[in-house]
Amino acid sequence: MEKLFWLILGLDILLFSVLTSSFYFAFSPLSSSPIPRPSPPESDKWLNLTILHTNDVHSHYDQFNAAATDCTKEQSKKKECYGGTARHKTLIDEFRKKNKNTLLLDAGDQFQGSLFFTYYKGKLNSKVLNLLGYNATGIGNHEFDKGPDVLASHISRLDMPVLCANINATANHALNKVIKPYHIFEEYNLAIIGYITDTAGGISNAGPDLDFYDPIPIVQGYVDELHNKGIKRIFTLSHNGYKPDMKLAANTHGIAVHIGGHSHTLLANDTSLPDYDLASGPYPTVVKNSKGDDTLIVHAFWAGKYFGHLDVSLDKDGRVKNYTGGPILVDKSISQDPDVQELVENWREPFEGYIKKVIGVAKGEFDQSTCQSEECTMGNLISDSMLVTSRRSKKIVNAAILNSGGIRAGLLKGNITWANIMTVLPFENSVVKINMTGQNITNMLESVVSRWRNVVSHKRITSFIQVSGIKFEYNSTKPMYDRIVDAKIANSNGIFEPITLNKTYVIVTNDFITQSGDGILPYPINDAAPLEGIADTLRNYIHTQQTVTPYLDGRIKDLAPKAYIKPTNIHEPIHFGYENSLDLQDDEIITPKFQCVKAKTKSYSFIQFIFKAFCGPFC
């Protein structure tokens, strides 16, 4: 009995000593704890990484105005200009000084969109990417605008890997040897997988030798391959659009962060940003992956007006442990790197004449931002110019049709220069004349307002349209392919009359549409009669008019209210949201959420430990 007493007393003393020491450790201030603690093994440490990212810059290498066209001296003096490579260089240098673990990534579409591409045809794009020191880039659909060979030459000049996993380029040796599905950053035990929208073949000049596949199974396959190599920290670099990125995130696992582009999506939490009303979600957007883990999605608008910035902490297994960040507005508050700005001004010299040549005056602002969802003033101006110009030959032309995706900028009030026109219409498309029956036109309208697939060919619809000489009303709450309520077309006297299904009409459009671009027409039309370049048409029209005034006349009307309308078909994209369309299966539900990260103190962890020790499996 006496031995038992001393045994119990000894255990009590030992327990009291352990508890007092433990409570001292638990509740003492973190910074003044006297107990030395060994650092965790290197493999257990978190990786604290800064991600800087851009997408859809579209060769906007000099500062630009609110309409994304060339910034004038007056606008510059008023500090009404945004973006530009010189400001980007300042930002990049500042962040790299703060954190050596910084990755600079681009999600594609550096090509096209300004005279820096029109004049240099891709040779300058590679210089800019190298100058800024990108660590990796993706491929966008506009990288194919001059064909795969020009893209291959561009990539061969780059100092960083170019990533795209879901393209089959085996038939194009030059391109196939310079792209790779993923790149491993050995110093971080991290890999980045690239992918592009599988609609790229139908919305680009990729040609017949390239194939694009659904990225979901391909990306997951490479994630599994990387896991087998011991790489657990994985990002994607995507040119697929915001909602498709959400779908991929929800249907894959093992990916921490998706850096995206293509949909020109702004993600933001700061309500003071000038474009906050355009934000499609929070930055970052958090989606549960197929195993229920959080994965982050980030986009950064377009043209380089915003610079994406995400600080993220990853554990050794690639799980997101903490994050912070948001889009940075690249405005007057960010100084221009003087050396880089000097380079930009030198690059501009060969086409300075285009910039200075005034061809007309805009009496108001022509808006491009709504062209993908409804009638817009910029679309009216362009389609009217196509119709009016084609009728000058006194030949009957009933209507003009233009894909909204071909309109890349608007016009501000004031002088209009040739450079402005080239920025609005940079794709060098031609105006062509074709014959269409009333049934063809009705099918086209039903397909476009379905916002899903062409009713005849079942090709994906990837753009809205702008029209002149046609008036149509539709109801987006009705079932797909049964939404057109009323459609009229101008006759030879310019009077609108109901479309007759078996009658043939003369239509002017662009050669991109006649090749079944954006799925607007079901099949290519190879005998379309060319007229002139569409940019030339607009330029000549404005020059003849001298002044142009923005207006809407109700030629396109959705009778449904302008609010979110629940799709009547599970496959249908969200209302007014082409670029953010989401191809859902019947049993898929994606719910983005905000997340608050809790910081666990040592006292919290200790109490949790003691509690679990006493209650065991019952707590």
Write the layout of secondary structure elements.
Elements: H1 2-27, E1 47-54, H2 73-77, H3 85-98, E2 102-106, H4 115-120, H5 123-132, E3 136-138, H6 148-156, E4 162-163, E5 167-168, H7 173-176, E6 182-185, E7 190-196, H8 200-203, E8 211-212, H9 215-228, E9 233-239, H10 242-250, E10 257-259, E11 285-288, E12 294-298, E13 306-314, E14 320-325, E15 328-329, H11 338-348, H12 352-356, E16 358-362, H13 377-391, E17 399-403, E18 414-417, H14 418-424, E19 430-437, H15 438-450, E20 465-468, E21 470-474, E22 484-490, E23 496-498, E24 504-510, H16 511-514, E25 529-533, H17 534-545, E26 547-548, E27 556-558, H18 602-615
Parallel strand pairs: 1-2, 2-3, 3-4, 7-9, 9-10, 10-12, 16-26, 17-24, 21-27
Antiparallel strand pairs: 1-13, 5-8, 6-7, 11-12, 13-14, 13-15, 16-18, 17-20, 19-24, 19-25, 21-22, 22-23
